[in-house]
Amino acid sequence: MKTTLRSIFIGILLACTSLVSAQQVNTLYFLENAPMRHTINPAFQPVSKFYLTLPVVGYTSLWAGTNGWAMSDFIFKAPDGNTITPWHPDANTMDWLAKQPKTFAFDMDLHTNILGFGFRIMENSYLHINVSERISAGVNFSSSIFGINHIRDGVVLDSVALGVNALAYTEFAVGFSHNITRQWSVGGKIKVLVGHADARVNIDNMAFNTSLDSLHMTGNGTAHLAAPLNWSALPTDPQELADYDVNELFSNYEGDIMKQIGEGFKPAGMGVTFDLGVTYKPIKNLQISAAVTDLGFIRWHRYASATVDVDATFKGIDLDYSDYGSVDHFDDDLLVDDVMNELEGYIDEVKVDSISKGFPYINMLTANLNVGIDANFWKNRVGVGVYSHTRFHNSYITEEVTFGAALRPVNWFNLAASYSFINGHWSNLGAAISLATYDGIMFTLAADYIPLSYAKTTYNDKTLSMPYKSNQLNLSVGVTIVTGTNKPRKKSKAEETCVSSAFFP
């Protein structure tokens, strides 16, 4: 069965919308004994002499969030006390729409450590080597998607804008930190990036008109994909796509499965980023830190893009399930083939206006500015501080400030609590813990936005509790093999000669 390029771009859209843009966990800043704390500031040195992160479970950080909206924006109480949605007859839908942002966005970031280790060099230096997988994805749509006009036999939806993006790359990092003087420490990290995929789909003026027997959809937009595919085989003339076999994209080596697999592992782009950090101790037990992370880019050289117009009417799929056998001997493959053949008729109503490929382009990554100040008391057993995290997106800047406190009775056990000022909700409370066993295995768990407000809902006669006011969540977990944490680390000469102060015993 021949598949057109139009199928590819629609597949990109469907795949990306199934994804849930790795943002760091701020509370990790206050865990002094956590080895992966150097991801916040490369000048930070672990208290352990050596650490080894296990694949995947060694360090994984996940963040997912919106541009401000939460469940409380869609489920709220009416004057009579009943829980309703904005489309309930008792709700003022137009007034609700007027208060919503023009664009709704949902983003996800994932940072998974594949392999990593670090060790102390002499007394004042530390070396890190890490390999990580980074994935980000997001979807945004205009608020007009909620402006549904109800008609007798269907629904009309006009002027909807939709954007979808996804990015995946592998990061090879080498970092080094050094205590220069009594008060100053510096650190740096260089990260070589191997780009796997960069997908972006933007649809403008999408409209739906449904009836009892059909769905009519119109719209126009662009689809862009950077991936390790054989783009040289792709025709640039839209008229040649009708008979184009999409399988030609996947390899230059027809019939050689091993060479095909090797082709798929070739990078679609290469890049580099830098982390730079510094710490300063003006007085004993007081530290000021600052760092810039993920300052760099990926240059993509294997990609294709297209502009498309859609004017399609979907009237359903007519299938006779008796053609596929009995319940015990059901032919799934035949059913899938028939469904795909039916859908291809509708896919053919997607018109490709133009195609471009092969011209390298640069994708700047989201840089971060991390600034913190913390004070320690009672021989470093208790710490308090404030930490600022700023993200520099392509078109806007986001910032949050985290206040935290830490309990460090021994090097192998740290406990921290925090509050992040970002949206005024108490759901921004965070907590973190790191614990090292006598076998040298350290467990780390940290989160910034622990939901405290829940709403009860009923589904299939079951009562469920769901976060009500939270608009984001994150979680960091790690299992690390460490040495030299059960005993207090011997302070370097620089630390021992740090300037004393009467205010910090």
What this model shows, in words?
This protein is mainly beta and 505 residues long. The chain has a domain of 333 residues. 9% of the residues lie in helices and 51% in strands. The protein is built from 5 helices and 24 strands. The protein has a 20-stranded antiparallel beta sheet that branches. It has a two-stranded antiparallel ribbon with strand order 3-4. The protein has a two-stranded antiparallel ribbon with strand order 22-23. The N and C termini lie far apart (77 Å). The N terminus and C terminus are likely disordered.
Quick recap of the structure?
By secondary structure, this protein is mostly beta strands.
Structure characteristics:
mainly beta, 20-stranded antiparallel sheet, 9% helix
Order of helices and strands: HEEEEHEEEEEEHEEEHEEEEEEEEEEEH
- The proportion of residues in beta strands is over 45%
Mean pLDDT: 77
The biggest beta sheet reads:
20 strands, antiparallel
Question: How does the SSE layout of this entry go?
Answer:
Layout: H1 5-17, E1 50-53, E2 60-66, E3 76-77, E4 83-84, H2 93-98, E5 103-121, E6 125-142, E7 149-150, E8 155-179, E9 184-210, E10 215-226, H3 257-264, E11 269-283, E12 286-300, E13 303-314, H4 332-347, E14 350-357, E15 361-364, E16 367-377, E17 382-392, E18 397-410, E19 413-421, E20 429-436, E21 441-447, E22 454-459, E23 462-467, E24 472-483, H5 493-496
Antiparallel strand pairs: 1-5, 1-24, 2-5, 2-24, 3-4, 5-6, 6-8, 7-8, 8-9, 9-10, 9-11, 10-13, 11-12, 12-15, 12-16, 13-14, 16-17, 17-18, 18-19, 19-20, 20-21, 21-24, 22-23
